[in-house]
Amino acid sequence: MDQETIDYAVSAQADMIISYEPIIEEPILTIGSTNYQGRLLLQLLRHDIACYATGSSFDKCKGGSADWLASRLELSGVYITEPQASYAGMEDTVCQSGKGRIGYYKKKKSLEELTDMICNLFSLEGINAYISKRDDGLTFSDVAVVVWADEKSIEAAMERGVQLIVTCGVSSKEAMKACSEHRAVLELPCETAAHIFETCVEQYLSEVLSSSIEILTIPMQRKSRFLKCRKE
Known about the structure:
Layout: H1 3-11, E1 16-19, H2 36-46, E2 50-53, H3 55-60, H4 65-72, E3 76-81, H5 92-95, E4 100-109, H6 111-121, E5 129-131, E6 145-147, H7 151-160, E7 162-170, H8 173-182, E8 186-191, H9 194-211, E9 214-216
Parallel strand pairs: 1-2, 5-6, 7-8, 8-9
Antiparallel strand pairs: 3-4, 4-7, 6-9
Helix pairs in contact: 8-9
């Protein structure tokens, strides 16, 4: 959900927008024109446009984005990550849906094989691994792959190959936790929201580093569909 989408809905005189990402991620007390979120909400209100965001429901439902991505990657033995059965009072189907899916390849793939496959599947010009530092000002729209590890960990991952994968709609602390618990080497979210990702990394960074987990993001929004390789 962005300015371009709302402008199009206004010009088309639409009554409702059905989107993937919501505008509101956390409770808000006021709506004003001093920030980007407020301007989007005010425009929706002025033009009487309703908005429904599928968000996490679409990520984890049967046949949703996590299942779709696992299917496109041709993973075997796919099962649910961390069913949320501990949430009292929620519908059984929601409780059992988890946050993503875990699957594996019967034969390990090299990172080069996997990235080539992903480029072909999602029409990406290239995928580039980036060794990130906490203070480098990296924005997550800059690169397709963010590796929270040092060079030795990268070299080890290249030699080790990829077999167990966690897929999810949005990079989340639950998915990172699943990677750590199941010793998965890759987390493959369909989309990355930077502010969510930052929170997850702060909470699980030590686990990710100690487990040498690579986090690969596949931007699915139209404006970021084609990425260029970048050498660091």
